[in-house]
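[agent] plan:
  1. take the single chain provided in the ticket
  2. run structure prediction with default settings
  3. attach C-alpha cells to the ticket
  4. add a short note for the reviewer (M.T.)
[agent] executing step 1
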Amino acid sequence: MIVCVCKRVSDRKIRELTHEGVCSLEQLQACTGVGTQCGQCVPAACRALLEGAVQPVPVRNAAVLTR
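[agent] step 2 finished; step 3 output follows
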C-alpha cells in the first residue's frame, strides 16, 4: 500500500528499511523523503515504521539455527 503519495513510498519499502536499520522518522525521511512535502502521511509512515520494527526478520535457512 502506498503510504506517501507525494514521494511514492510504500509500507513494504518502509518495513524493508527498518530491517536495514532505519529506526526513526528522521532516518526514514532522509532515506525516502516521506512526510517532507505535505505531511499527511506521517502517522501512517510511523505506524509502518513501528510494524517493521516489531516483525521478525524472516530466517532464510532454519537449519543453521539448529546447529
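[agent] step 4 note for reviewer: The radius of gyration is 14 Å.
[agent] ticket updated
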